[in-house]
Write a structure and sequence with these properties.
Distance between the termini: 36 Å
Strand content: 25-35%
Helix content: 10-25%
Order of helices and strands: EEEHEEEEHH
Radius of gyration: 18 Å
Largest sheet: 7 strands, mixed
Number of helices: 3
Shape: globular
Number of strands: 7
C-alpha cells in the first residue's frame, strides 16, 4: 500500500494559487511558496506531495555524499518508478517544481503499456559498435542529473 504524504503543495485552479496543507485533514499551513518561511519549512520536512498545473509527484529529501541533502521527485506508474533530481532546498521554486512535473508527465505519457513494446532490433553496424546498456544504468533514456561534487 503506498504511503500517504503528510504534506501537499497543490495548485488550486479555483483560487489560482498554490496551497500548502497537511494532507490528512487538509489543514492549510500559512507558508507561502518561495518565501523565507517556505525554505525554513523545507529544511524541517523530509517529503511532500506536489500537485502542479502539469503533473504530480512526491518530493523527497535524501542524503548524498559529504552529508549534503538534496531533493528528488518520484512518480510511480504501475510497476515503473521515475526519479528526477530537484536540487538543494534553495532550488525548490515553483518554476522548478512545475518544470520537473512537466518532465515526469511527458515521460509518463511516452511510456508504452506493458505488452505493447516493440522489440529493439539494431542494425548490424550498430550492434557491432554500440556496447550493451544495463537496464539499471538507463531509466527510459533519462539519466538522473546529479549535483557537482
Amino acid at each position: 500500500m503506498p504511503k500517504v504524504p503528510v504534506y501537499m503543495l497543490a495548485w488550486s485552479s479555483t483560487t489560482e494559487v498554490y496551497e500548502l496543507y497537511q494532507a490528512r485533514d487538509r489543514e492549510a499551513l500559512r507558508v507561502v511558496p518561495e518565501s523565507p518561511e517556505w525554505f525554513a519549512w523545507l529544511d524541517q520536512v523530509s517529503s511532500f506531495a506536489f500537485v502542479g498545473k502539469s503533473g504530480r509527484y512526491t518530493a523527497r529529501k535524501e542524503a548524498r555524499q559529504r552529508g549534503n541533502r538534496y531533493w528528488s521527485a518520484y512518480l510511480a506508474t504501475g510497476k515503473h518508478l521515475s526519479k528526477k533530481y530537484l536540487g538543494k532546498t534553495a532550488d525548490l521554486t515553483l518554476a522548478r517544481l512545475e518544470h520537473i512535473a512537466d518532465l515526469l508527465s511527458a515521460a509518463q505519457a511516452a511510456n508504452v503499456q506493458p505488452g505493447q513494446e516493440k522489440p529493439f532490433r539494431p542494425s548490424q553496424s550498430a550492434a557491432q559498435t554500440t556496447p550493451p546498456v544495463s537496464p539499471a544504468a538507463d531509466t527510459e533514456g533519462e539519466a538522473e542529473t546529479m549535483p557537482p561534487h
